[in-house]
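Issue 218. Parser rejects a valid record. Input:
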Amino acid sequence: MLAARLRASSTVLARRRPLGASNAVRSAASSSGGSANDGDTANIVLVGAGWWSQGWHLPQLARNEKVTISAIVDSSPHPKSNLNPHLEPLEALADRYGCPVFHSVSDLLRDDIGGTMDGAIVCTPHSTHYTIGKELIGEGTRRYEAAKASGDGGEYRPVNVLCEKPMTTSVREAEELHTLLEDRRDVQAKDGALPTINEHHIGGGMGAFLINHTANYRPQARAAHALIQSGKLGTIRHVSAFFASPLSWIFDDPGNTGWNEPDGSGEMLGNGFAWGQSSHLLGFIYFVTGSEHLTPSRVYCAMTHSEETGADVSHAATITCQNGATFSLSGTSLLPGNAHSETPVAKRIKIKIFGTKGALFYSGDDRDPSSGKLEWARSDDPHRVGAVEVQCPEHGFQFENCDPEGTGPEALQSFIDACLGQEYEVGADSLVGLRTVQTIDAMYRSHSSGNCENVRG
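Output the parser choked on:
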């Protein structure tokens, strides 16, 4: 363990940033075992060592020559999950990945290793994201303020965060995280900080805050977003979205309490498919259409539930947005099969977005790119009304990137770019996270009351 800690500490202080300097500026100091380009690597901490971390995040980070896994954090010395009964204890993970382990983010930040962190991946139960995210955002702000007060040139190391979805399970918590990140940008503007290549992103230069909606980082999602932002669809008036997952085995298992039971705070009225899966689809819709434009206002929703656990397993919702647009959202975990078995069954997605000047269609089987394509139906040109143009034809249909092989999905690569001080893509920021949480919260409240509910916040 001590040797692992010393190895991690040898990579420190490679990425300090002068106040107001370009986000791409770093010191020339290099770490041991650096990248092929300049010998520099990102020091990344993984918070949460459960099913997804051990099966995806950790091996993918370990294969990436631009990354040093500087620590693993988990409250349990031996994480358990019904989704994988063979998870390794923290001690074995420390040996496997050559890094120290901690039992809380607070413990990490009190240690010298915490001060060398460039970024953290938050992969813990949904309801814990807020507390961990707030602590990491606070560390980024603390570093900035300490550098500002030091008077020695003001160099600091940003803290970047990649948070699993949903961002939180409480509107109050989501609003607080979003406000903290927006306030950081305002602070830097007030301080007269120089522009950075990423200054337009929420969070300012104190660190990225991204949500791991892997579908949003696909070329098709970026193309759809760009098309809508260009005005070629006009004003969005209606969205229809459907998502079916072969995941009944998760939501019917009483042992999967983090997926199926509310956290006891009183703010979660339920748990299940809506938080666990519909958050993926909502995050995609709010990114593609522009979360600053399509703002949910009122929601009516009906749900069905598992007889074994009480978790919601399907829903049908009607969402009215502030601009008058309507949004039909439905989904279910009742698709037969298993998305993560030796012979995995694909998820099925159908998305239709209608504007005053055109429409977008994107549907398919997420394990078969040939099953669909991104189509733009035009009415912006009087000579081409009704014409359909395929966008990103070389990619076909791709939604979530759940491939456990290689160095990870596009979302993870964007996060690593942020940790290296490079320009990075934002497929899901805290505003996308907030809109998603607001919608799901209202869905649960509507099902509970039987009425149409106003969106909180």
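Fixed in the parser; the record now loads. Residues 1-15, 21-39 have pLDDT under 50 and may be disordered.
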